[in-house]
Design goal:
Blueprint lengths: L27 E2 L12 E2 L4 E9 L4 E8 L30
Antiparallel strand pairs: 1-3, 2-3, 3-4
């Protein structure tokens, strides 16, 4: 399939049928998640990693700790809801916004 400039491949996708199984937990929550042990973080790039705190498939919402060990860039991606951030140190921003 040819890649069209500006086309969003996911727009025409239908929702996954039966995605919530009867025995599945509606949410996942991790206590004491913001730890320094890098083995618990998922790398996004060479300098940026993430550790989930809370995931709710039913609401399509999540919360995570984003850790950057240096300057870095995360690939462009889509957020279905508002983004709230609390920065402990350093600074961050979007290339698309001031």
């Amino acid at each position: 399939m040819p890649k069209l400039e500006g086309a969003e491949f996911w727009r025409g996708l239908k929702p996954i049928a039966n995605s919530f199984k009867p025995d599945a937990q509606p949410e996942v929550y991790l206590a004491n998640a913001p730890i320094d042990d890098e083995r618990y973080y998922v790398p996004f790039s060479e300098t940026v990693s993430s550790r989930p705190l809370w995931i709710s498939p039913q609401q399509n919402k999540w919360c995570d700790v984003l850790m950057a060990k240096g300057a870095g860039l995360v690939n462009r991606h889509y957020h279905p809801h508002e983004v709230f951030a609390y920065t402990i140190s350093g600074k961050w921003g979007y290339l698309e916004h001031d």
